[in-house]
Amino acid sequence: MDINLVANTIRGLAMDGVQKANSGHPGMPMGTADFASILFLKFLKHHPIVPAWADRDRYVQSAGHGSMLMYSLLHLSGYDLSLDELKNFRQWGSRTPGHPEYGLTPGVETTTGPLGQGCGNAVGMALAEAMLAAKFNRPGFKLVDHYTYVLAGDGDLMEGVSHEAFSMAGHLGLHKLVVFYDANRITIEGSTDLSYSDDVRKRFQGYRWRVLEIDGHDPVAIEYALRKAQSQKKQPTLIIGHTHIAKGAPHAQDTSESHGSPLGADEIKAAKQALGLPDNVDFNVPESVRECFAARRGEMEKTFDAWQDLFAKYAAAFPELADEWKRSMDGNLPENLEALLPSFDPSKKMATRKASGETLKALAKAIPQLIGGSADLAPSNNTFLKDFASVGPDSYAGRNLHFGIREHAMGSILNGLALHGGWIAYGGTFLVFADYFKPAIRLAALMDLPVVYVLTHDSIFLGEDGPTHQPIEHLASLRCIPNVTVLRPADAAETALAWVLALQNRKGPTALVLTRQDLPVFDRTAYAPVSSMKKGAYVLWQSGEGAPELILMASGSEVSVVLEAGQTLAAAGTKVRVVNMPSWELFEKQPAAYREEVLPATCACRLAVEAASPFGWERYVGLQGRIHAIDRFGASAPAKVLAEKFGFTAAGIAGIAQQMLTK
Predict the structure, then answer these.
(1) Beta carbons of 541 and 552 less than 8 angstroms apart
(2) What is the CB neighbour count within 10 angstroms for residue 42?
(3) How many structural domains are present in the chain?
(4) What is d(CA 229, CA 207) in angstroms, rounded to the nearest whole number?
């Protein structure tokens, strides 16, 4: 095996792909081709024909801008990615977009590009592996035994999310996590000396990692470091690989220009000559290189077959565990989740965060793959599963995750858990801190990941903590992200059903937006059944039959207040309809006829009420309607005082509606 030829072939493909697209990042693939070649040809356990094999190693290229490296490796390894796709790099309709996209390109484990996010994803994957191993492995049956490898650059290590995620990985002792740090000392603006002087070795040793430092172009040193990493049983491993960006390009090597721009025809020709590649052939792959990857593919087919045999024996020895394994890996849920939900007494008020905790407790017993935790707010979020153990250092059999005060990491780790498979993951914090992991929420939406966010303390009514903790714009910002389903239930029963809807949503993340304060529990014999919330919005109550004179609409904690206001107006002779809107996203998926039935065009007198930014409600109130919301930050005071000062009382809302009716 001529590993130098393999690496140089990858360099040639990267140069040619970026040049043909006239766009991209050639420098990183050229600088890391040596490490990647050895990883894929000697270490990475995977099966290009069965890319979803559960016990495969995970390769996460957190430095997603160097995507031509990954595409070259996947093509050479035998994944369903043709050379024509490499030639179609960054073009409309190709499977080789500018940054790797999960679900689009076979073999891509996660969508990367926003630097640092892949690092957190990898921690989630390594954690998922450790927890599955603790749950399913038995003496003589190592059903789960794989590594998570990460390629990260200077930018990844500068971003705060990597600090948080790698700190947690070190604390947990995730020893099957191996990070290769491409230390090329170059960023877009120039040398890293401009802004970065961390002692990375000391930093990771402080995280309780094992640190190795090598010449990132020395094949012997790379192989030695990877073997040392695999021998580690207590700590994750960081391999600091000192590399040259655009390795082999006579004039572009070690320059910031090579980071994100094509090298140009003349420089590519000179680089190919220096690397011993044909300078008159684009996208050249020597037959000997293809043979190397074909041989490795044959080895992996035997490894996969051996695992299949192992699983067959495992299923015979442990049939119940094998069945649970299949259910977990397929993401299957019990058939009738609603039958498992707790009931709530209409005579007793309850905060929706507390109702969520009661629901989680019931569901967790029936869904063994349900795991999660909070960013140090479990007592407030009600996210702790009291009947189950916690995950900790070298102790992975529990189901409670303690993320610490690390919202950034929590979001990206949740994505990694979901990407890995075998678990249904949730994470909790206050709604106002959703901003801390918004990039991870966005990526979960982009990747269709079924992650659940438990976002409590959802309005100014959390009270005395004041405007720093009182969300205003956050509901609107979550609703703006495509493919995020926001559920803001109005009472305890809706909260329980919201959990079912969240778990059944397998094509994107769900945000459960919950109250700190107690709310009335609606007596459903007097109001619409709780099942109505499945449609996102519904008529909770109406005075009289036929078309209403006034529509009052709200979500969450404001629904009960609007209902009281509506009943006051109805007592005075107004025909009022109260519409509960827990989820705009679910409502918009309903047929136009249903949406018209709930919000008939014949009634233009509409008032929307929400203790948050008014942004977005315009679509529902129309030109003649009105929005009673908050367009400023909150204040520190008891909840009842805030309700009066901001006009979120039944009397205040009834007064606004009366003004509208008399115009």
Answers:
(1) no
(2) 16
(3) 3
(4) 16
Say whether both 266 and 174 belong to one domain: yes
325 and 143 Cβ atoms separated by less than 8 Å? yes
Q: Does residue 341 sit in the same domain as residue 276?
A: no
**Is residue 647 situated within a structural domain?**
yes
Q: 358, 407, 494, 610: which is the annotated catalytic residue? A: 407
pLDDT higher than 90, residue 546: no
Are 490 and 522 in contact by the 8 Å Cβ rule? The answer is yes
**φ, ψ for residue 285, nearest 5 deg:** -130, 105
Do residue 510 and residue 593 come from a single domain? no
Please give the Cα distance from 65 to 212 (Å, whole number): 25
Which residues have C-beta within 8 Å of that of residue 439, sequence separation ≥ 6? 114, 117, 161, 411
Least Cα distance to 188 among 256, 266, 109 occurs for 256
Give the confidence band of 37 by pLDDT, cuts at 50, 70, 90. very high
- Domain of 185, in residue numbers: 3-300
Q: 3-class SS at 593?
A: helix
Considering the domain boundaries, does residue 326 fall inside one? no
Is residue 500 domain-shared with residue 408, that is, in the same domain? yes
CB neighbourhood size of 23 (10 A): 15
Please answer whether residues 487 and 546 qualify as being in contact, where contact means their C-beta atoms are separated by less than 8 angstroms.
no
Q: In a 10 Å sphere around its CB, with 0-12 CB exposed, 13-18 middle and 19+ buried, how is residue 150 labelled?
A: buried
346 and 265, same structural domain? no
Query: Do residues 483 and 353 both lie within one domain?
Result: yes
**Nearest by Cα to 637 from 646, 650, 628:** 646
Q: Which positions ≥6 away from 339 have C-beta within 8 Å?
A: none
Per the structure block, which two tokens stand in for 101? 């996209």
Tell me the CATH number at 588.
Answer: 3.40.50.920
Q: What is the pLDDT of residue 548?
A: 97
Residues 172-219: tens digit of each pLDDT: 999 999 999 999 999 999 999 999 999 999 999 999 999 999 999 999
- pLDDT confidence of residue 214: 98
Alpha-carbon distances of 534 from 452, 505, 537, 581, 606, rounded to whole Å = 17, 12, 8, 10, 23
Among the candidates 254, 276, 300, a domain finishes at 300
pLDDT at 291 over 90: yes
Q: Are 60 and 118 in contact (CB under 8 A)?
A: yes
**In angstroms, rounded to a whole number, what is the distance separating the alpha carbons of residues 308 and 252?**
47
Concatenated DSSP letters for 472-540?
SSHHHHHHHSTTPEEE--SSHHHHHHHHHHHHH--SS-EEEE--SSEEPPP-TTTS--GGGGGGS-EEE
pLDDT tens-digit map of 455-467: 999 999 999 999 9
644 is catalytic: no
